[in-house]
Amino acid sequence: MQTLTTNTATTQFVRSCARPLGLVPTMGALHEGHLALVRRARLENATVAVSIFVNPAQFGPQEDLASYPRDMERDSALLEAEGVDLVYAPTPEEVYPPGFDTWVEPGALADRLEGAARPGHFRGVTTVVTKLLNVVTPDRAYFGQKDGQQLAVIRQLVRDLDMGVEIVAVPTVRDADGLALSSRNAYLTPEQRAAAPVVYRALSEAWDLWLHGERDADVLRMAAMSTLKAEPLIEDVDYLSVADASSLVELERVDGPAMISTAVRMGKTRLIDNVVVNGDLKEFDSAF
Ligand code: AMP
User: Fold this and answer.
1) Predicted confidence (pLDDT) at residue 279 exceeds the cutoff of 80
2) Pick from 233, 211, 237: nearest CA to 222
3) Would you say the C-alpha torsion 64, 65, 66, 69 has a positive or negative sign?
4) Candidates 63, 132, 146: which one to mutate for ligand 1, based on the most atoms within 8 Å of Cβ?
5) pLDDT digits over 121-165, tens only?
6) Sign of the CA dihedral running 259, 260, 265, 268
7) DSSP β-bridge partners for residue 142
8) What is d(CA 182, CA 194) in angstroms, rounded to the nearest whole number?
9) What are φ and ψ of residue 174, in 5° steps?
10) Any catalytic annotation for residue 34?
11) Which of 21, 91, 112, 156 has the greatest number of C-beta atoms within 10 Å?
C-alpha cells in the first residue's frame, strides 16, 4: 500500500495503475461503515484508492473541525489489512493552496435538510469531491447511504458536470443496537450512547407503518417524531423529513421511492440517519 500526500505523486501513481480504479473518499477515523465501502470497492476494481482528508470547507465556523477525530496510524493499518493499494492523504494546503478561489456551487437539492441546518456544507463537499475525483480519476466512487443527502447531491454533481464516474451507494452499517456507525459517535457519553439507538428506532417505526400500508407522510413524520421527543437526552430535532428519494422535496403521500431522514442533537453531538422506502436500496440495514 502506498500513502501519498501530494497531487503530483498521486497523478503519477494513478496514470500507471490497473483499471478499473475505485475511490473511497473519507475523513478518516475509520470504522466498519467506511470498511464496507472499501470492501465493496475491493470486490469491483483492480485498484482501490482511499482518500483521507478532513475537509475544512465543509465545516461551519461553530462546528467540530478542530476536535474531529484523527488517527492516521490506525487508519493505515485498517486499510492495509483490506488490501487497499493507495491512500491519498493530502494536507489542507495541498487541497486549498494560497489563492484558491474557485467553488462548485450545488443547486436547490443542497439547500434542504442538512443544507438548511449547515449553510455552505454541501458547497464544501461538492468542491472537495470534484477535486478528489480530478486528482485520483477513478472509474467508480463509493459513498454511504448513511449520508443520504450527500449521495443525492453527488449524483447530481457528476451528472450535471459530465464527470463520467460511476457513483456506487453502499447501505448503512449499524451497531448491534441499530445505531448507524459514525466517527462522531465517539463524542457520545456512555448515557447518550445508550439512548442514541432511539434515532433508528424512530425511523424504523415510520418505515414499519409504510410497510403496513400507511402512505400519508404526516402520519409517518408524527410517529417518528413522537418517539424522538420521548427521549429526554435528545435536546433538539433539526428536522424529521419524509421526502422524494431523488429531489428530496417533502412529500404529502409516499407513493414512490422516499427517504425518511432525521438530524438530532444530543449534547454536543449531532446524529443523522435515514432509511429508504420503496427504493433500490432494499438492503439499507443489511448489516443490522
Ligand atoms: P466520512 O468519513 O464521515 O466523510 O464518511 C466517508 C464515507 O463513508 C461517506 O460516503 C459516508 O457516507 C460513508 N459512511 C459513514 N458512515 C457509514 C456507515 N455507518 N455505513 C455506511 N457508510 C458510511
Assistant:
1) no
2) 237
3) positive
4) 146
5) 999 999 999 999 999 999 999 999 999 999 999 999 999 999 999
6) negative
7) 168
8) 15
9) -120, 155
10) yes
11) 21
Beta carbons of 39 and 22 less than 8 angstroms apart: no
Beta bridge partners of 26: 52
Amino acid identity for residue 178 in this structure: G
Q: For residue range 104-116, what is the model confidence (pLDDT) as tens digits?
A: 999 999 999 999 9
Residue 272 grid coordinates? 443523522
Please, are residues 172 and 284 in contact by the beta-carbon 8 Å criterion? yes
Q: What nine digits make up the cell of 142?
A: 463509493
Ligand 1 atom 18, closest CA = 33
User: Residue 184 corresponds to which cell in the numbers above?
Assistant: 462522531
Which amino acid is located at 1 in the chain? M
Ligand 1 center–CA 216 separation, angstroms: 30
State the closest ligand 1 atom to the C-alpha of 287, by its place in the atom list counted from 1: 20
Q: Contact, 263 vs 271, CB < 8 A?
A: yes
Q: What is the spatial distance between Cα 25 and Cα 170, in angstroms, rounded to a whole number?
A: 13
